[in-house]
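Problem 12. The chain below contains 129 residues. Write out its predicted structure in token notation.
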Amino acid sequence: MAFGQHMITSGSTYGLLRKLNLLDDRSLAFNRQDSFDLIRDEASKLMLLKHEQNERKYNLRSREVSFTTGQEVYRRNFKQSCFQTGYNAKFGPAFVKARVRRKIGNSYYELEDLQGQLLGNYHAKDIRQ
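Solution.
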């Protein structure tokens, strides 16, 4: 497709074409520019079709999430284990209750704890209802 020529895949085919003097015969090829346009159009249609199919499969189970200001949510707990304090993150909670303070952009939210203290900015993937 890149150069508009048929690829010779085996040595025996090459030898046969060479004996028949078809390698240098330009009379068999029709207008190359027309063939490039046809191939390019067909390839772009096929790529667009495959892109739409892949997009449908990829987004099959995705869901639109949106949280409102003041809504109580659960944020992912990113606290790590600490030997000095004796805290083991494996036994800690995976999610901690928080409140949405404001929305930042499409996917980021500024969260606060239930006492009103700022916790930081969190992506929607790290927030559950």
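Discussion. Residues 72-128 form a domain with the SH3 type barrels. fold (CATH 2.30.30). Students who got a different answer should revisit the alignment rule from Section 12.3.
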